Amino acid sequence: MVTMQPHNKTPYKTIRGMQRIYDGGSTLVGTADELKVSYSTARRYVERPRQLKRSNFATRSQYRDALARRKGYNSDAHYEEALALERQSRPENIAFSTLLRDSLGKKGKSDYWLAKIMDLSEKMIYKYLQGISLPSSANFQRLSELFGWSYESIDDLVADTRF
């Protein structure tokens, strides 16, 4: 007959001590060492309770707003705007949007035309042109064929020193 060992529970006093030490500025490792508990135990009782749980919110939107506020933004919309601006400054986004704008200009075609030819939304083409998004590798290949680009991938485009 196999007997089960009782689950070893961390005493409430130890949990409170971990939270107090961690809140005092100690690291997780320092907190664990000071109370002679494992790092995973300290993380379980100190760091995880501070994480937001999706189940505590009525809607996904409320959850995303709370995550954004935790990162210092007023709302999820402000956070998404900041991420978009950050993406626009990446070299690969700048190089791709510049190449696409130039290619459309040389052909004398509009973004509406490109959306229809590529079977993509106008919003997606707008994001490409603004440098907010990059195409998938399959869409990049289709664009390369359409405009006669010599690039196999976006990495090749970035490696080209002309951009």
Indicate the topology:
Elements: H1 12-23, H2 28-35, H3 39-47, H4 60-70, H5 76-88, H6 91-107, H7 111-118, H8 122-130, H9 137-147, H10 154-159
Helix pairs in contact: 1-2, 2-3, 4-5, 7-8
How would you describe this protein?
With 163 residues, the chain is mainly α. The chain has three domains: 9-51, Arc Repressor Mutant, subunit A; 54-80, no CATH class; 89-159, lambda repressor-like DNA-binding domains (434 Repressor (Amino-terminal Domain)), CATH 1.10.260.40. It has helices spanning 12-23, 28-35, 39-47, 60-70, 76-88, 91-107, 111-118, 122-130, 137-147, 154-159. Helix 2 (28-35) packs across helix 3 and helix 7 (111-118) crosses helix 8. The N and C termini lie far apart (73 Å).
List keywords for this structure.
single chain; mainly alpha; disordered N terminus; 163 residues; 434 Repressor (Amino-terminal Domain); 0% strand; 10 helices; 3 domains; elongated; Arc Repressor Mutant, subunit A
As an assembly, this protein is: single chain
CATH class of the largest domain equals: Mainly Alpha
Rg over C-alpha atoms, rounded to the nearest angstrom: 26 Å
Mean pLDDT over the full residue set: 83
* Secondary structural class: mainly alpha
Give the overall form.
Answer: elongated
The count of helical stretches stands at: 10
